[in-house]
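Weekly modeling sync, notes
Attendees: AB, CL, MP (scribe)

Item 1: holo prediction request
CL wants a bound-state model with PMT before deciding which constructs to order. AB pointed out that an apo prediction alone won't tell us much about the pocket. Agreed to run with the ligand included and paste results into these notes for async review.

Input as submitted:
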Amino acid sequence: MSLTGKRILIGVTGGIAAYKSAELVRRLKERQAEVKVVMTDSAKAFITPLTLQAVSGEPVSDALLDPAAEAGMGHIELAKWADLILIAPASANTLAKLTAGLADDLLTTLCLATPAPLALAPAMNQQMYRHAATQHNLQVLADRQVHIWGPAQGVQACGDVGPGRMLEPLELVALVERHFTETTVQAEDQATTHLNAQPLAGLKVMLTAGPTREALDPVRFLSNHSSGKMGFALAEAAVALGAEVTLVAGPVALSTPLGVTRIDVESAQQMQAAVMGAIAQQQIFIACAAVADYAPKVVAEHKIKKTAADSLIIELTKNPDIVAEVAALADTPFTVGFAAETQDIEIYARDKLKRKKLDMIAANNVALAGQGFNSDDNALSVFWSNGHVDLPLTNKSQLALHLLTLIAERYYDTH
Ligand code: PMT
């Protein structure tokens, strides 16, 4: 894709990965983007401003209070100039400053002053990345619609192995391209929403969403981090696309989208009963819920008491596999499963597609910060027997519209 006319401001912070920034700038320039670079002081320990000036063909900005810069392209002008700010590498320190809204250098000030979207390519030692403070900061930033791109896993400059490597320049360029394609698609979607036919008109769609709770005793349960946001976004989007929607929801703190019939459940058994009770009338079933695979074999009648023993063994028993049961019906609806994976996404997703006899599966990488469980954004890789589409990272409402449009296409291709 050409990035002609796109104005991209690259922020470079202190970290060994800063040497890759020159390559990133070069690759963006090759695609006709206009690129300007802002460096922090610590970045200069890893790469010189001269190098970045040479590859960008523009003077590199680094000082907030530079009288010469203020007279020309000051921080407000730079903030207004950018179509996208990408900080690569983004150090743990910069993530913390952005989370707190600090503005003690040119780069962080720009980030506060810009209306442009902000993307971060974190790069740091794996232990720093895993630290609760960094994870919290990434979550806060993702909740503010900041794009978090990466990090990758692997061997680090310090010899550690784990997550924290900056994505490679070409991977970042691909994400920049996706970002601008998506922005264009969103603008077109908004412009044409009222003209679009409703591809799900006349169809009944049932969805599951949220977690299940598997009781251990009257006050305790086993569960997971699903917030229900993805499933509720799908329910809302299905109504917008013309469907009659039934949403079977586990325990979540979300209000019911307009026009949706909601059935609240707690456990996997209850979810199964609610689904099977109304599945015969549905043309499409989408299993987005994070259903517990196992439940305690026995639910204690009274609160389980602490004893002198150092351990407590609880026997679990397998829950019904709801989506597989639906897909095995004689008169099965078009059945779409989700796959929450942390590695080898395609292999595991295709295995579930086949094993559970689904028509389609939407896989998400739940190991990445800023997407999957309990975040506002997500990205999906959608697979069916002879096809595959990647739906890039965006907010769950937008993603739901894209997934449902795909489901409608596949439904009509097969019916
Ligand atoms: O709710 P959010 O916070 O917005 O997060 C969204 C999400 C990460 C929960 C969602 O995008 C997602 O991935 N949902 C599926 C989670 C899951 O349980 O994945 P799985 O790979 O374990 O299950 C595969 C499929 O089987 C799923 O469609 C699941 O609904 C279904 N299943 C699983 C077990 C079971 N007993 N019955 C089922 O129907």
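Recorded for review: The mean pLDDT is 92.
Action items: CL to compare against the apo run; MP to circulate these notes.
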